[in-house]
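Mods, move this if it's the wrong board.
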Amino acid sequence: PYDTIIQNGIVIDTLSKVELRADVAIKDGKVAAIEASIPSDQASEVVDATNQYVCPGLIDMHTHVYWGATYWGIEADALAASTGVTTWVDAGSAGAYTFPGFRRYIVEQSQCRVFSLLHVSALGLVARTFELTIDEFVDVEMAVKTIQSNTDIIKGIKVRLDRDATNGTGLRGMERARQVSDQTGVPIMIHIGLSPPDLSEFVQYMKKGDILTHCCTGLSNKLVSDDGDMLPVYHQLKEKGVVLDLGHGSGSFHFSSAEAMTKHDILPDVLSSDLHQVSRFVNVYDLPTTLSKYLNMGIPLTEIIARATIAPAAVIKETQLGHLKVGNPADIAIFRIDEGEFLFKDAANTERIGKKMLVNTGTYVDGVKLKAAKETATHPWVVRDLSVVAALNEKNEDVHMC
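Not the wrong board. Structure tokens:
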């Protein structure tokens, strides 16, 4: 009676954060059964997942997938089949003026699930940065109308509060993002990096459910002191109920911050990649590689997977995603853990050698196994900027990119 049975795997229950040996059956795009043993003759396709982990499809809450219309955009479909990411949340690539194209040409054409955090700038991230510079484009009215007309896709509002994005405009972007959020009920995702503005100036605008991304940055707006202690602003954020999102990116993850937080038993609430045209090639590569960094810090796999599935599902209010349950969509990722010596890097080109790597071996969306698709050739501006990143790394300077 089933379409597919995934047998002999170690199923990760993200609700209880436990592992159990079980078979998973798929029928008509849904999880149809999770049982200790399901006979092979009950399905037209049987997948042997012996010694592999069967997980809900990963939900990457910080990506840039508006390919062809923005500086940062990658192709989600080209990477999904080999990474286990079945849901991609685009963090601000589209603004009000560019969202219709994002919906028609990305969301509606993708074999994956794609959601949006609408940029408070109506231009979105067409260019690398400076998007908050022109007052006219930071358009509250158009952002509100766009969100209200697309509540099935838009899950939040995005604003980047770093030196370049604000470009001397202070807290205007934050103030307007707050207005949009208050009028629509969606949370704000706030990107941090180099000040100004300083995090201490804009934390006052943040409310419960808002998202601080790049929480493990080592740049000036960081949460960890040079001595490895948590700064007062961290405690302010937690008291407010702000969600801490990793958002690794090419310039926003530093081992110094991540390892210090881990020593304090503090983890990001959500583990995300900030995968884009630059980070794809320099130190992120994909979400499983990002998760592997935490695996090599000694964090249990069940905890890691939960923070890349059920935790982001709760933030974007897609509660049918992020956990394997009979009746839920059959968004499933299968992983093995390879052992050996693996090189990991952060934004400062600091290196760590890890002994474990999470490797995706199968990805299903609505019960359909995704097939690997070829990535389009890299854009010329990315080739240029990758050489800039390499030069900065040789000088041992921080790479300040998204």
